[in-house]
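Marked as duplicate of an earlier ticket. Keeping the data here for the record.
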Amino acid sequence: MRTIITILFAKLIKRRNQKWITNPIKRQTKTFNKLLTSASSTTFGQDHGFSKISSYEDFKKRVPVRDYEGLKPYVDKVVEGEKEKEITLKDELEKINSNLGMLS
């Protein structure tokens, strides 16, 4: 019984992986758009106009690379007790991070 479940699970994982293996750009774009949509209601997303971003180029223009000091106002809001979900996408990022760990 355990072997059957293991085989079925392996087939499911293989099928799921084939989707991104055969077309990684499409899968990355889909994930990127999903994250933008989810983040558009966060403080960070509103401050950077995530709802108006339609491409990676738009994202690069609207969201500058910065160090901790540049992100400190958002960190301070979490420390002060503002709901973290309203500021960041912690749950989504943890899901992505755990999926990346499975792939490596």
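See parent ticket for discussion. The two ends are 29 Å apart (CA to CA).
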